[in-house]
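From the pipeline queue, job 12 of 40. The input is one protein chain; the requested action is below.

Action: predict structure.
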Amino acid sequence: MTFAYVLISCDLGFEEDIISQLKTNDEVKEVLGTLGAYDIVAKIESDDVGKLRDTVNRKIRYIPRIRSTLTLMTIAGQE
């Protein structure tokens, strides 16, 4: 499996709505609200890097009120 953490910055007041939408995605395994430069962190998982990329680019980044994302891919064997 391939994992990534997606750090999400969103419009003020829309954190809970976005968290709810993220939880409906099968590839999203965990979602947490955060304090600091980013508002939400999501852990995503897929059986290949291409699907992971699609999840970020076509499913997460198109959620309304998300301003920006930063994706951190994990390194295989360093779990």
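Job complete. The chain has a mean pLDDT of 95.
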